[in-house]
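User: I'm writing a tutorial on reading structure tokens. Could you give me a worked example: one chain, its sequence, then its tokens, then a sentence or two explaining what the tokens reveal?
Assistant: Sure. Here is the example chain.
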Amino acid sequence: MGAETAPLRREWWVAPSRLGCQAVRPNSLIESELIMSLSISDKPRVPILVVPLFARSDTRQGIVAPITRRTSDVREYIRLMSDHVLTDGVVVLKPLAPEDASEWLAGEDEEQLRWFEAPRPAQISDVEEFIFSCRESWRTLGGHRHWGIRRIDSHPLLGGVDLRALGNDEVNLSYVVFPHYRRQGFARRASLLALSYAAETMGAKAVIIRMLPGNVSSSNLALALGANYIGDEPSEGGETFQVFRRSLQPD
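And here are its predicted structure tokens:
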């Protein structure tokens, strides 16, 4: 018989959360560490972040490495989650994790490929590279901010919403909802959260939304968000984008 596998031990750090919600289902993030939002027992309506510090386990040899308090990692996770996880009580936006890659790839369909001018269907390596790029921008607080969309009461990934700084205090907004979850209002909810974030955190004064002609769902959403059609411009794929713009400044 092989050596008995030692149990995985955990310690927990707790930090105040600004998620603005009662509870969020656990979702694995960087290197399989979990960040969960729970309620404090004596103050049941006050959400907190519980950040586990994992002992490293080698199940092949039955070894559990000592727990180390990696302060910089914990601070990064707390900052990432408390400052950049967004919710309206129905959907929650979270930065994508490496283990989301296969679920993201499974959500791709012909409609998505068409409207995003993709030259070919994505492969898992493409998605992994994209998630790595997104996470690097989050780590450095760069000009690209991307979130996965989930319902607050269920785990499946519904799609994503994306902000990219354009300069001149403008951001580009894009969004995708996977086939089974379309036309249920998720893109609008996610976009409103992202636009509030763009104004309050990125200092954006206006949002640009681009789409190909015929993308009726996206043009209807842009209008519902209060954006106005301002003209056309060439797309990277050689077609023509319809361009919508909305001010993010208070009236």
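What the tokens reveal: The mean pLDDT is 75. The first strand starts at residue 10 and ends at 16.
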